[in-house]
Amino acid sequence: MTQMIVNENLEYAVIGKFSYGWPDIQDLRRLIPKQCELKGDCNIGLLSNRHVLIRASILEDYVNLLLKPAFYITQNNWSYPMRTLKWDPLFNPEEETSTAIAWISFPSLPPNFFGKEAVFSLAAAVGKPLQVDTATKNQTRPSCARVKVEVDLLREFPKRIKIGMRMQNKEVVEKWIKIKYDYVPKYCQTCMIQGHNEEQCYVVHPELHPYKEKSSQEEGKKIDGNLSKEEGKGKDTLVLDEDKRKRDVFVEPRSKKWGGGRNKEPQKVWNRVGIITGNKFNVLGTGNQDQSLHQEKEQIIDNEIENEPNKQSHNKCVNNNILGTNEAGNASSSERTISEVRIRCYVQILRVYKNVTMLKN
Asked: Among residues of the chain, what percentage have pLDDT more than 90?
């Protein structure tokens, strides 16, 4: 198996996962080496939906690809996040591998253990060592040794390691060295993906979902809005506001901005009869002016209704005079009928308008 992996140039293979769209594969072959700063040659191909296989040729590119949590491939002013995972012969698109790369350091390690072989032997207790950092290699930071390690996220990480030194008198002196971990990705065995663990999983704990929490808070606000405080006997009690529930008329609030100037949103009143809309442009103002206008309208309607019999008798007299002077009796009779119908229609319109005005008030 190992020889087959080497023959197929898969020794330093990395999977790039796109979760929110991706450019064309021809563009990815041009963009990934440049934007991921790969130094060696690489071969890029589409492995499955949302996954590309990057075959790096040198260990440095392999480590740099896996060390960064995510790369952002930019094209046409749009960034596509790409997460990198180690390729595995048993690759499953529905599951992410539990192997990742992390930095570990050994504080207070004696400088005589800063050699590559010594550091790698210590790092082997955590995982597969890959390379030491520049300061450890150049011996410019004797206080701490740092190394990149390929770790399995499902296993427990040791917190310290014991080293032994043989002195000149052949006595072995032992010392505990603390292991410090930099960023290590979390792995969820329920979702089978990297990035979180079971304690932060929304599948295991749906109450932790931010949308769920937000909806519960909104429901709590609605319930609190329907409750009002009532003072009694020195204690505050919460009771339902029955007046709001029994209210038949609901007035919509006016918006703060409506076209500018005097053009404001008309006030709408909802009642059992229907919708009554006030002055559209609010030119006549509100308050006492509206009350005075309604009173004038009501006075005019009352006068019209009271004068209805007089108008009818007057019209009859006029019609009689017309009958006496007009030779065409049939024509005058038709005109009288039309005038009476007009008067009745006018009176009915005035009555309806008065009823609507009373309902509005």
From this structure: 29
